[in-house]
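Risk register update: the risk of archive-format incompatibility is retired. Evidence:
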Amino acid sequence: MAGGIVLNDVTSTEITNLIFAGSYFSNYRYYKQEMLENDYKNLENVITGLSSSQYDNLRQMIDIEMIINAIQYSNELGAIAICTKNRNLANLGHVLAKLADESIHDFYKNAKNISIKDMRKYMGYHEIEISEAEVARYNRSCERYREELIFLAEWQEHFYDLYLTYKHGLRILPAGCEEGIFRIIIYNSNGPYTYCYLPATLMSESIKITEFIKVVFDKLYIPLIRRKFFEIFGLEFNPNGFTKTIKASDIKGGEYPYTSIEFSIPWWTNDGTEPKPFY
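Archived output:
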């Protein structure tokens, strides 16, 4: 912060974690998917001088990149859902650093069995006031979100081994495409290699998944993160930025000539209202 101000009741760790959680973290995979799609369509302009077979191989690998990106985005969604359930958003960065892939994988494997009571927690509804008249609407929101998590769980389960293969050494070799199906060779510890056949429509599916997850972040989790950030830092929403009034008793290390600090977080573009039912 400007001038080295340290507020007595705010820890820098909490602020840093919440800024991370509310910034590019929720958008990066979505924008990466758009960049990959653009590279796929314009590959000859991005990289020049290759043979047609080399371009075909690169396009296959971009397909794989988009599948892996969708899996990683769903992993991040699972991680933030777990943090939200445990009221641990202020420690998201630390949780992500320690949370094993298996924990997120287990979260998706158990998606079908999540109760409505727990879905409310995964969606952060236990953090906001809900009137009796709105309970049915919020429960319906939980049901529909669970259906989407079940779909993501099926995607995860289908491609989890491919994800691990990609993650641990890029043991993947493109092997051509025929009639809407492309082949890849995967090198593994159980033998020299195995063939894997993937439909060419997977690219469009992975795009839809990243689009859905971005909407979940924008409409559900970012408002919760912003709310927590404002509570901890004592801020009020301002369309032109965020203002904090500094009192002399709040400052460690001597006098400071200003009475307020103004700053902005460029990724927070909506109006700062409470989270509404997602559906």
